[in-house]
Amino acid sequence: MRIVLVGPPGAGKGTQAAFLAKNLSIPHISTGDLFRANISQGTDLGKQAKAYMDEGNLVPDQVTIGMAKDRMEQPDAVNGFLLDGFPRNVSQAEALDEMLKAESMKLDAVLDLEVPEDEVVKRIAGRRTCRNESSHVFHVQYKQPKVEGVCDICGGELYQREDDSEETVRKRLEVYHTQTEPIIDYYRAQGLVVTISALGKVEDVTGRAMAALKDDAAA
Predict the structure, then answer these.
(1) CB proximity list for 2: less than 8 A, separation 6 or greater
(2) How many of the other CB atoms lie within 10 Å of CB of 214?
(3) pLDDT per residue as tens digits for the range 134-168
(4) Over residues 165-183, mean pLDDT
């Protein structure tokens, strides 16, 4: 299957992408991973991306598209892939369509993870990160530490990252609504969108997603 995963920040795309890719036996291709891999490997596209990022500018669509094209042409993606973070806007979606058409391929589904905006803010703004180890993350409501403000794992101080503040989260949501959300209508016009609720336990969301994709494929 060839799937695009979309949803607002805080919808759990990264977590769901990993589970779905494993269940479907296809590679999970994320924009973040593409940037890191190309930059660390010193590819031409990586050098271009780094130059823009070092200047604090957005990486142009053509660079992102080039990285995605290279990754989708790898042997492990011959039977499908799950795209996470790409396409990010309608122009990238159009470019993806052209890429696939040139290879006589097409997308099977666009999985839209639906989460109410207030829940997104609650999920992200409630996160608390350990100053000693950024992978130690807690939540004021969903994953409380045993001692308030103290990491259960290493005893480090827990704090709210600047990009997890409510103000920043709402700005990220504005960008999502303006730039990325329009691709849902773009793909809906092609009959590809499958929308599921991303509320509840991780495994429940994965189950809903798998069932929806199976039903869509059978339709």
Answers:
(1) 80, 81, 100, 105, 106, 107, 108
(2) 10
(3) 999 999 999 999 999 999 999 999 999 998 999 99
(4) 93
> What does the DSSP assignment read for 166-211?
HHHHHHHHHHIIIIITHHHHHHHTTT-EEEEE--S-HHHHHHHHHH
Point out the residues that are catalytic.
Answer: 13, 88, 127, 161, 172
Cis peptide bond prior to 87, omega within 30° of 0: yes
Question: Which parts of 58-198 fold into alpha helices (H)?
Answer: 61-72, 90-102, 117-125, 166-175, 182-188
Decide if 193 contacts 110 (C-beta within 8 A): yes
pTM of the model: 0.87
Give me the phi and psi of 149, to 5 degrees please: 80, 5
Amino acid at 72: M
What are the Cα distances from residue 13, in Å, to 16, 78, 157, 196? 5, 23, 27, 12
Sheet of 137-139: strand order equals 137-139, 127-130, 158-159
Q: Which two tokens stand for residue 185?
A: 């209508």
Alpha carbon dihedral 81, 110, 165, 168, in 10-degree steps, equals: 110
Question: How crowded is residue 96: how many other Cβ atoms within 10 Å of its Cβ?
Answer: 21
Which residues on adjacent β-strands are paired with residue 150?
147, 157
* Tokens 């639906």 belong to residue: 114
Residue 153, CB half-sphere, CA atoms under 13 Å: how many? 12
